[in-house]
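Quick one: structure tokens for this chain, please?
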Amino acid sequence: MSDIKLDLVSILEKARDQKAQDIPESLASKTLASDATKDMETALTSLRTFLRTQDSFIYLVDQLRSLLPSAEAQEEFDKTNLMSEFITGDPYGLLDDTLLNVAPPGIALVALSDFFNSDRFYITEPSSLSLFNKLDKAYEAPSSVKTPVSIGEANFIVPMENELFLMDKETNKKFVIAYQMKPQSVQIRITAGGDEQIAMLELAMEMKKLIITNKHIKGKIIEISEGNIFDVKELDEQPFPILDKTLHDELEKNVINIFKKKDEFEKYGLPAKRSVILEGPPGNGKTMIERWLASRLQGEVTTIWVTSKSVKRSSDVAYIFEIARKMSPSLIIMEDLDLISGTRQQMYGGDNVLGEMLNQMDGLTQDNSIVMVGSTNRVSSLDEALADRPGRFDRIFKVGKPDGEVAAKIAKAYLIKHGVSVPDTEALNLEDFFSEGDLTGAQIVEVCKGAIFEAIHKSSGVTEVHLNNSRKGLLNQRQNYLSK
């Protein structure tokens, strides 16, 4: 045991010579004279307590470990305690996690690699943090794997670190980042102390923002869903839904042309921005129209797709508009606008989502080149300051139940697509059958689908009788539901 004590003194003296400004001259004598005479374990505990506050001494611990008799290195190492001591200084401190699922994986890995290796962080190898275990067994860090990634014609080799211990150079806040490639995404786990929850969420948002504004996804469709989860998508060419041609022309004029004919708008001194609302009951093609718009502009314009799950607080609204500005020219699609913006009562009684929405829309400048398309079942459910104010939402377009002519086109297209011959479809006299105009587009499709089900059940072709039975069944169910 005495030999071990001498080795400890030797190591500390050597370190003091190298780091004289950091190590108090009396460290060795204070530590060992008071504790080492009792037993080695007490001495090391005392030394570890001191070293915990001295980042420059972390490298000493592996040397000290090697001095321990093997009999004293039996306990299992607790990985969670290592994280906890690194972040909070307490092996049993409170830790919180947040998860991001980011797609596509190649883009995420390239962006993350740049982010982690910026000048912002100190990156500590987990194996050097054996200071924070019980000096019984060094924590073996996961091995680093280099992964080839291709984005378009660009090729990258990025590290696939399973775990990184980061300290922000400016704030000294500590985080443990673990990320892993999945088949369709990269899953990122951020761990921080209980009192650093806000910093952790800010870091998650910052990482998400960095990935989502990556130059390699400019011109694609960014779908923001619940929490920190988003996806990057590409759409095949989408047909315009079978609706009134007037609506098609209005959307060409008020949305598509803002981007396609930007030079002409500039010639007239008009800003490259516009906001419109699609209003109508569910099942009449609002989402199909939005998908058509996104596919028409894909490659030239970045579409940011927002649902009610995307916005929980006013900061989410600010974040969405910040992304739109950075990725400009941008199309923001907001489904269920009434659920996103809230009401004036909520504005004064809780988080001010509506107020932030108004501020962000008023703050769009001529240079932003941002168009918004919002959809809602009822414009009356929106606050007047949002819906009835040109400059915020400029136009409202009705997407209502199709009349007999349009309904017949929807039904015909569906039946032919699903194997009913053109002559048999013509014989069904669809325009007269749907002349009442009382069904949504989705209900027309369901009537046709039900007719095919009945034809299969009766081993015959689709007839008007099958259509009529299917329609009656649908309307009866609807009436029974609405009467409850």
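The two ends are 84 Å apart (CA to CA).
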